[in-house]
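Bit of a strange request maybe. I'm writing a small parser for structure token strings and I need a real example to test against, not something I typed by hand. Could someone generate the tokens for this chain?
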Amino acid sequence: VKGLELAAYEPRGAVGQGLGYATANRGGCHLNAGYLVFVEGLGLAANPYTPRGKAALTIVNQSLMEAISAAGNCLFPLFSAVPGWLISHPDSIVTKIANASLPLSGGLLSLFIKLPGKCAPVHLPLIPHTKALKMVTGVNIHLGALKDIGERGFNLERLFNLRMGMTLAQDGLPKRLTDEPQIPGDDRTRVKLGPMRAQYYKIRGWDAEGIPTARKKRQLGLA
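Reply from user aminoacidic:
Good idea to test on real output. This should exercise your parser:
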């Protein structure tokens, strides 16, 4: 994807990860993709085949990981935001409810993405990066600010790629992954990229060609 070979995770078995690969600014990078495979089977076990909610989940992960990377932190500790108990007790009713709820969270997450960061001036106990950055820099960084920082960085990378000639066609996956089911006869096991990508663009505030709108650029201070 965009000239970069895919990482280890098969997107036909984790369609949100497939969307992340397609939209990542670096191409087939599991980290810039948002590493959604973590909730699609690697850590948690949200339905890996449903496209429901995956666009919003991908965007939130991409933005938070972008911000944490910009701060100079390792990305993987971010996933300590998922309580270890849920991972070590996969058959518990609590874990099953959490897994079932993730694809249903798209609407709430879309609202979080679209609202200015000042609307979420909170620190979450399981995401300590905000308080750590505040203590180190003196800057009042909360969850909403962290989201805004990451979104600005991701959009800046996107604008650079577009300036270098990238088009919608490059936000794609190899045809084998979108056209050929991983399990023969099971249509769930291919990445239905088109509808997920369209929803992803809409939530991000990009146009139908994947270009950040003038409004989005003004909102992020990139105009």
